[in-house]
Write a structure and sequence with these properties.
By secondary structure, this protein is an alpha/beta fold. The chain has helices at about 15-30, 55-65, 85-90, 95-100, 115-125, 155-175, and strands at about 5-10, 35-40, 70-75, 100-110, 130, 135-140, 145, 150. Helix 1 links the parallel strand 1 (about 5-10) and strand 2 (about 35-40). It is globular. The structure holds flavin mononucleotide (FMN).
Length: about 180
């Protein structure tokens, strides 16, 4: 388990549905004894990206991403896409941060969540991450939880599976140090 996993909560809202999904994933990562680091946009507000000097708080997160061996990226669906908070952070990042590394993706939505998931897959492919074929759309999220507890067994099983897959592929990619350049 030598490869650090960065997990991102892309919702900036307090007590968001995405943060509940992230909490479930964190429990799974604990059970799997994974080495992980959480970037939680509920608690972090970054300045809007421009191409001037990178602010210190971004540089800090950027280092975590650059050193990671794999990613679990969770986004809420906002207006048919990923959250602005997540996209703003990803705009600070580049191919060098993600190339040759696997990324598992999760969307969370009141509706089906497919638009956000598809947008996220496209963004991550443009960053040259190796997007796992299995991803999870936690659609109609209000019906999947009782309070803070994830009650939908199918979604729980899929989230457990992507965590295992992500760790497995982080090991494989890490050993092979695969890059295009
Ligand atoms: C600005 C905004 C835009 C949203 N747009 C959509 C949408 O396009 N489709 C959808 O299914 N839900 C939409 N929602 C509802 C969210 O998917 C819902 O709040 C869900 O709980 C995930 O967001 P959260 O993690 O911030 O709670 C939107 C919510 C906000 C705040």
């Amino acid at each position: 388990m030598g490869h650090k996993i960065v997990i991102i909560n892309g919702s900036p809202r307090n007590g968001s549905a995405t943060s509940k999904v992230v909490k479930f994933i964190l429990q799974v990562l604990e059970e799997l004894k994974a080495d992980y680091y959480l970037i939680d946009f509920e608690n972090i507000q970054l300045p809007q990206f421009n191409d001037r000097q990178e602010p210190a708080e971004v540089a800090n997160l950027h280092k975590k991403v650059n050193a990671a061996g794999g990613f679990i990226i969770c986004t809420p669906e906002y207006h048919g896409s990923v959250s602005g908070a997540l996209k703003n952070f990803l705009d600070y990042c580049s191919i060098e941060d993600f190339e040759g590394k696997p990324a598992a993706m999760v969307s969370v939505a009141s509706g089906h969540g497919i638009y956000a998931l598809t947008s996220l897959q496209m963004i991550m492919r443009n960053l040259h991450a190796w997007t796992l074929p299995l991803s999870v759309a936690v659609g109609h999220v209000e019906s999947k939880f009782s309070g803070d507890n994830l009650t939908d067994k199918k979604i729980a099983g899929r989230l457990q599976l992507i965590c295992k897959e992500l760790i497995r592929f982080a090991e494989i990619f890490g050993e092979n140090k695969f890059t295009h350049y």
